[in-house]
Amino acid sequence: EVDILEAKILQLNPDLVIIYDGWNDLREQNTYEEISRNWEKICQIGDNSNFDVMILLQPIAGFGEKPLTNQEQEYVRTGTNYGDQQLTNFLVNYDNYENELELLDMCTLTVNLRGVFDSIDSPVYWDQGHVSDYGNSIVAQKMISYIQNVLPENFDERLKSEEALENIDNNLAIFT
Questions:
Q1: In what order do the strands lie in the sheet with 16-21?
Q2: Residue closest to 82 by CA, chosen among 8, 26, 10, 140
Q3: Residue 88 carries which DSSP code?
Q4: Which of 5, 65, 71, 113 has its CA 20 to 30 A from that of 17?
């Protein structure tokens, strides 16, 4: 993430960079110390380059309090890290990611989305980490509720100009 930020995103002069982390990091067996250093560096780059950074810890099936459907329970049972070990064995690692997220103070926003589906009875997961359009909609609404707090006061006015819309279309970049 840091390499992509430095090599590709900085040249776009972003106003806001959103980092959505968790599942792949856990599957890769990244330690909470590695995750924390990465997040801190991204936030420092944002501070030095005058853009906001929002870091989100993503929901994972079986790592929140969502009432899981039978299929989602199967995803939890069969979900593994990249070493073919059951991912739920690493719940304490994810707890540590969450703790590190709460300690970040250089970022504009940090949002723990682990429980974003806790009140949803219907299926949202396609596997242990990917979610359906419905799940993405829930996550997007939650993100919007936080992003609105950091937008400039004249943001709506800026969006109304055609030039602004062209710049958004030309400069929108999503890296996963």
A1: 16-21, 52-57, 109-112
A2: 26
A3: G
A4: 65
